[in-house]
Amino acid sequence: MEQTKGYIYGINGPVVKIKGSAKFSMQEMVYVGNKRLIGEVIGVTSDAAVVQVYEDTTGLMLDEPVVGTGSPLCITLGPGILSNIFDGIERPLKDIREYFGSFIGAGVEFKSLDDKKKWQAEFVVPEGSDVKGGDIIAKVQETSLIEHRIMVPPGISGKLLWVAGNGSYTINEPIARVQTESGEHEITMAQKWPIKTERPSKERMPISRPLITGQRIMDTMFMLAKGGAAAIPGGFGTGKTMNQHQIAKWCDADIIVYIGCGERGNEMTQVLEEFSELIDPKSNRPLLDRTVLIANTSNMPVAAREASIYTGITIAEYYRDMGYHVALMADSTSRWAEALREISGRLEEMPAEEGFPAYLASRLSAFYERAGYFCNLNGTEGSVSVIGAVSPQGGDFSEPVTQNTKRFIRCFWALDKSLAYARHYPAINWLNSYSGYTDDLESWYAENVSPDFMKKRGELMAILQEESNLMEIVKLIGADVLPEGQKATLEVARVIRLGFLQQNAFHKDDTYVPMEKQNKMIDTILLYNRRMKDLVARGVPVSLVAKTGIADEIVKMKYNIPNDDLSPFLALCTRIDTAFDNVIRENNS
Amino acid sequence: MSVEYMGLHSIQGPLAVIEGISGASNEEMVYMTLESGEKRIGKIIELEGDKAVIQVFEGTSGLSLKNTKTMLQGRPMMMPLSTEMLGRALDGIGRPIDGLGDYYADEIADVNGQPINPVAREYPNNFIQTGISSIDCLSTLIRGQKLPIFTGDGLAHDSLAVQIARQAKVVDENDSDAENKFAIVFAAMGVKHDVANFFRKSFEESGVLGKVVMFLNMSNDPVVERIITPRCALTAAEYLAFKHNMHVLVILTDMTSYAEALREVSSSKGEIPSRKGYPGYLYSDLASLYERAGILKDAKGSVTQVPILSMPNDDITHPVPDLTGYITEGQIVLGRDLALAGVYPPVQILPSLSRLMKDGIGEGFTREDHPSLANQLFAAYSKVEDAKSLASVIGEDELSDIDKKYIKFGRAFDEQFLSQKPYENRSIEETLNLGWKLLGMLPKSELDRVSDDLLDKYYTPYEG
């Protein structure tokens, strides 16, 4: 195929103008300049094209050649992705380090996946059978935790003419041949896919299962579904990254795709180190075995930041196609939106709000809609759940990225600066957050956790809501003048906040809490609430309870009762009853 | 290649446009010669067809369209590096201004640097003792961290920065030579002469001047030069840290002036502004500076950054502090209320934060009670604020007993824990013990962030 060629006519930061050929197509991947930097065509006119370059353009000269590749920016999908760390366009950072040393240079092509390594493949379909796109033909143990399923690339179907048979192969060796209508097609373990195109599936399925994270405020109060989309907005220092890390560590997805998009370099190093040391409680293997990291730190080229989000979600969809539940964390989508703004500004496009391009909303929706619970082409079920951090400027949620994101997600975990200042972690504000998945998930919780779970959740929420109303009064006149009933509400709300909502990520038991224990904790708190109400009805002063120290015990149940032995809850409930009985008796005598 | 181009196409603010150019590369450095023979340095920031936009570092005043000669250098902005830089004062683009002449260059490097590969980073977890209680206990500085000081005009940020530089000794028991491996890189961007002198004098008095490289761009120096100053400073810091294994503390002051210089250039280029007129790429640009802190697996040294940033009108949501906070690993926020109450250093502990602290304190680093103690102090202090705001409505006398205790605790905390003298160097043990002493003013039942074991070990009631 003849290559399209042009030459550089103008350079403005990462945006390069090309003249000399009208043959470039939109979103085509191109090599820019003598250093062959990777770029993408983002605009075409009669004799010129505009390219955004994914690498540093320092030293690029006018009149240097630009060569087209004829295809959009694709990434390689195949075994070897897991426990790896890539940059925004799927170049392995470990290889980049080997080549350039500690700093990232430009202009060298790297293979995304190791093409020397031999993978042991086990075939699951015999020669001669009919296959179609998405069908699993072989299995490879990619990491100790995850079995990689080699699929027929979408769009290819026909008779399986030949399979290589069980054995070891590299990702580029042909392992099967399919007779398609247009001729024979060779299948390798790796396939290419353009990052900006959604991978096909059979159909979307209704949402029915939660993504359990082990974080109480998320699992109980504002639950996220498998295949759902959530946003965590918050000013700096409120714990966006910390929450993302916690979810990545403990959520019950099979695969984690973690995208560090325009964030700190040290954070990616931390994830890398921590995840290779942390052991998954279910399998006793390092968490890194189910994780892939995409790192485009804030000082890496801005155009690659735009691509990193798409690279991540394409990888997520690929594993979904195998029948896995994938959770994708994007930290932070605001940096991605800013990358759009920066490129847009350099193209001198007409800005909409705060300099962001008018297409911000459509890009955001296109991204979040790639989340979902799917029936795959091969009939398996899989899901992609997306959790996007948002970094609103000045912590103000009315800015365009937060507002537009809110339209496309159904679970909103609003981080609150004043909670973070008081070191109440996770600093998710229970009054501003919401989840639209509660109705979809009600039956799951009823079956698997507790029949009246949603009712109990509602009770907790009502107490917290009432507390916030009462706090308005307390701020003006102090708590002493409130009637006993309202004092009781304040006290129960305090116990909910300290004992339930606050969760210590550094405590061995509290960092991850199974649903069963969460449920028992709720029961205990609600028992406390009932006894409080009873006390008020009997006309006993609420302050007498404080002297028993029983509230303190409830608050510390998260530490004192281990996750694997929930029997002490029974004793705790007995002690609560005894404490209240004693208070009533003493008051009467 | 040394082709000289005569004349310019146009001049706008700090930018000059030159026409008919060929063979120019992006970010290339150029020398410009004025009619008077004066030489200036510039950098190509945009190319289109045969036109190049040049950012002139020393400003465009005196430049004329006809008689300016421009020579392309064929390489990006480089600076000479050597350990002889220690003890020297350089201008905003790295030329000696202390009258001692040029130094011998060991190597030259591109001032823009390159991003550190996250895989090559070593995760920082070495505690730096600054001897300042509010920082050591509550927003701990870690070697390789970037921890800015958010301040307002007229607050004691300069003294605080100097105190950190003076007291932040690298204590490493395994390395007797650690003392010699300590260096300070100081970059002044648009600061007043008095401020620069204050720093110089303070370094001199504490006997570290021989370990300091100073980059000085004063408030009356060319604005555009300011854009290069921190890059030169960080290039020097990286060289000392990663080539000579030194532990380098970089003080950058004032980042707001830097951002304003960036805005000025951006508006001259006619770019679309985002918030408050700052360019859309302010985040990426600040990140290209702040991210140049850290530790590498392949080198023994470290670059620790303490940028100083004045918040215009004390507004922490202003774009510069806001974007900075999103990039840096925490922040130390100074408060006017505390300063007015005579507290030095006036560190507002609630908005202050050190993100790397959690991995560099506790058993094996400082002391096992440090994380819980810090957590408890934060929680208690936030209750002090609640009690204070209630007191401002109903009066202190009407407060409940426990709120009164908090008010009392808050006062003692400001006076004894936050306040210390500019030359007072508290060890981490002293700081932690002081924290426990003050917590003794609160009843045991209020301390819900500390485990019972620690309470038994450290808690003793204290009347204040």
Give a structural overview.
The complex is a heterodimer of chains A (589) and B (464). Chain A has 589 residues and is α+β, with helices and mostly antiparallel strands. Chain A is 35% helix and 23% strand. In chain A, strands 8, 18, 19, 20, 21, 22, 23, 24, 25 and 26 form a 10-stranded mixed beta sheet that branches. A 6-stranded antiparallel β-barrel of chain A has the order 1-2-5-4-3-6. In chain A, strand 20, helix 4 and strand 21 form a beta-alpha-beta unit. Chain A starts with a strand and ends with a helix. In chain A, 52% of the residues are buried. Chain B folds into 3 domains: 4-72, Elongation Factor Tu (Ef-tu), domain 3 (Beta Barrel); 78-359, Rossmann fold, CATH 3.40.50; 370-458, no CATH class. Chain B has helices spanning 133-138, 157-167, 193-205, 225-243, 255-268, 282-290, 319-327, 336-340, 357-360, 370-394, 401-418, 428-439, 452-458; strands at 4-6, 10-12, 15-18, 28-33, 39-48, 51-56, 69-76, 78-81, 89-91, 107-110, 121-122, 149-151, 182-191, 212-218, 247-253, 294-296, 302-310, 330-334, 347-354. Chain B starts with a strand and ends in a 6-residue tail after the last helix. The interface between A and B is large, with 74 and 85 residues.
The mean pLDDT of chain B is 90
Structural class of chain B: alpha/beta
Using the alpha-carbon principal axes, give the shape of chain B: elongated
Q: Tell me the CATH topology of the largest domain in chain B.
A: Rossmann fold
Main sheet overview of chain B: 10 strands, mixed
If you compute it from the alpha carbons, what radius of gyration of chain B comes out, rounded to the nearest whole angstrom? 25 Å
- Outline type of chain A: globular
**Separation, N- and C-terminal Cα atoms of chain A:** 98 Å
Average pLDDT of chain A works out at 92
Uncertain segments of chain A: none
Low-confidence stretches of chain B: none
Give the tally of β-strands of chain B: 19
Total strands of chain A: the figure is 26
Largest sheet of chain A: 10 strands, mixed
